[in-house]
Amino acid sequence: MSTDVTAKSPAPAPPGKSGGAAADGLLQLVIDGMRRNMRQYGMLIALGLIVVLFAVWTDGDLLLPRNVSNLVLQNSYILILAIGMMLVIIAGHIDLSVGSLTAFVGSMAAVFMVKQDLPWPVAVVLCLAVGAAAGAVQGFFIAYGGIPSFIVTLAGMLIFRGLTEIFLEGQTLGPFPDGLQKVANGFLPEVGPKTNYHNLTLLLGFAMIAFVIFQEVRDRKRQQEFNLEVPPTKLFLLKLVAIGAAVLTLTMLLASYKGAPIVLLILGVLLVGFGYVMRNAIVGRHIYAIGGNLPAAKLSGVKDKKVTFLVFLNMGMLAALAGLVFAARFNAASPKAGLNFELEAIAASFIGGASMSGGVGTVLGAIIGGLVLGVLNNGMNLVGIGTDWQQVIKGLVLLAAVGFDVWNKRKVGS
After folding, report:
1. Residue 68: how many CB atoms within 10 A of its CB?
2. CA proximity to 258, closest of 68, 3, 45, 55
3. Mind listing the pLDDT tens digit for each residue in 86-114?
4. Among candidates 50, 38, 104, 96, which has minimal Cα distance to 335?
5. First CA to last CA across the chain, in angstroms?
6. Could you please report the per-residue DSSP string of 120-162?
């Protein structure tokens, strides 16, 4: 319920200064909105600054259409893992096994398709089932056995890495069928008349802009119906313009090369699906509840053990999907695949706004955190920074992100 406050009318602005006053007012709205939503917008702004920095540093090579497509393909499996890891961290847990599980599923895919000559769609279903089963076993020990997730997944990391060596007998195994390779490396087909752009990618890009605007407007109306605080109209419109411009820019870059990669559609489906679950579904709210305050969640009737079990089952399935994408992209399963993937996924989650104490984070934040790492890797490779210094810089970025989270909590608490 809003309250009207009577105030004196401001004196009319001198001629020629009304435009400047309006601009100053809009700038103040933006600053105030950022202060209230620093966790939400901080890493998004950081991603934009990193893109601008490396775009200038590489003389525009970072934003070449071919490089943007490669950026999506190179980071697709980390982004898939980051989505699942974000849910695990929100629930107040950690998963150290996803890198080894990624390699293990890739090795099983190679055995199914190369050695046993199974049709690749059948092998994909079997591999996803294996990943879900692995996640379920770990989730059972964590949820119902009461063993800390750190210990269970550390054991899983060792077990799955050893099983990978056993299945592959210490050798690289490939190649994979063309159909599976197209999923990881392919692009959407050309449709419609010949133009300078990929028509289907343009159509999907415009549809995405319309969907995002519709979603944002609907969420705003829903918040107003429950008398929740919403950003000022000018700031909200500015946010819509910024989102639309970002999606349009990405669409035009991809459409001017070969079009949208197929794996980008998979990521889009995961982003929309898991975003909806975490915002609107009961299980999503329960994940936030058990991570934010477990005793209170139990008293409220939340089945915390079941929710924890489902979170790790889901993480296993997404790790299997990432393993299939990774193996298909490089057209071979290797015993050394997936090294440090768990660290990349964890870093992406924390950079994207997850909290060490659980109960905080978004699926979109996981994608943003993964893109921050991906742009850093790609940009540093383009300017010739060695892998040794790349590790140092990424470590500093992670430390800064977590430090910012701690500082923000102290500021809110005070």
Report:
1. 18
2. 68
3. 999 999 999 999 999 999 999 999 999 99
4. 104
5. 27
6. HHHHHHHHHHHHHHHHHHHHHHHHTT---HHHHHHHHHHHHHH
